[in-house]
Amino acid sequence: MLLTCRLLNCLIVTATVATFARCSADKKAQTSQPSAPAFKLVPAPTRYFNSFVDCNMAEAWVGDTFRIFPGKYGEDPLWGNARDLKFADGVNAEKAFSSPKEAFTEPVMPKNVPVGQPGLHGAVWFETIYQLPADKSGRTLYAVYHNENYPATLPYDPATGQGYKNERWPQGLTGPTTPAAVCRIGIMRSTDGGRHWENRGLFLEDLQPRLILKPQNTSKTFAGGVGDPSAVASGDYLYLFYGEYSYPGTYNAATYDADKERSGQCISVARIRLADLDQPQGKARRWDGKGFNAPYNGVGAPIAALQIPPSAGGGPASSPAAGYHWGPSVSWNTYLNSWVMLMAKATGPSWAGSSIHIAFNTHADLGEALNAQDWTKPQLLLNRPGYFLWYPSLQPMNTPDDVANKHTCLRLGKRARLYAKHIRPEKSEYLSSHIIEFTK
């Protein structure tokens, strides 16, 4: 999160001509992997977004209105309180995405509570909207949000184990004296189409013992935690794909093992019953390598197919030289009958990385056996040296099929717009300059 602060610490990379992925997989390289559909990127007129985006684009159809919820809201001791989480409407996705800045409306959000009181602490970004199917008006929405805190906003409480100790805390994004954030994931609910929101509680979090501190954590990213999520419904559950940034066990500087840290990180998956979204606290379960058995604040296991091995440059998230995938965006593709995941790739400090990758999962039911783990090896989709590419997603267009089927970033067809945050030291933009087209 925090586009501006990440940008200040990003490595300046040389600008060269953009390179693009080959569109079909090498069958020999995938002998132990599920087969992946073919795809191609088609250059298209560039579309620029006119408001603040630094997360996945949360969106839903409210009746016949396509509504998007970009932005950031809440307290942040590093950058000040934010009021950028707003919504905009359109008769289709392209109209909503082209809304002028003045057309965005600020919803009524729950207030941050004082330190030491239960409630909302820190800043939030909406990442996914789940829409209650039973409400035919489309007005009952659940927002899965990314939340960031610091020892100043969420100090450690020994009675509950919640919060963070300001001891050997890793460096933040604006200099040696600033703190890194800890991310966690929660749920809010709206019953009026997103004009008013109430906080329902946490989906997932990592506690103090798993945070990675000095001297090992030098990446200028997070002290640990879970964040940058994308959530999809399958069966009776909401499945959350998210970035895991903590140590897979109790962190101890004296016994720290970099390879152990790497083994427990990358993109992970957890789930919660749809019936529990109104009272989610403590009810989600993480994948632990055998099933969804680990508690919401316990140690899970990442999706092995999405991890980058050390031989290919993979490393722990606390290292400034790490290679790992993060920021998943997951959708069901009605043409392919497959889940599609886009992800960014970090290759340097402060989430530096110029490429977007894509993976597939052909199991409609993510709850059966190992289905939630059965992703193809990520393939390069787009590489733009000279930029950092964050928060890639596939978005519907204004085609009759997209409008008639009320497609969103969670459900798409044969063709879709590719959006991503494009970042350079002097400028950052959320834009699309390609259409992706799938073939069977």
TrEMBL record:
Q: Which UniProt keywords apply?
A: Signal
InterPro entries in alphabetical order? Glyco_hydro_beta-prop_sf, Sialidase_sf
Protein name as catalogued = DUF4185 domain-containing protein
TM ranges are: none
Q: Which domain of life is it from?
A: Bacteria
User: Span of the secretion signal?
Assistant: 1-21
Q: Does the keyword Signal apply?
A: yes
**From what organism does this protein derive?**
Fibrella rubiginis
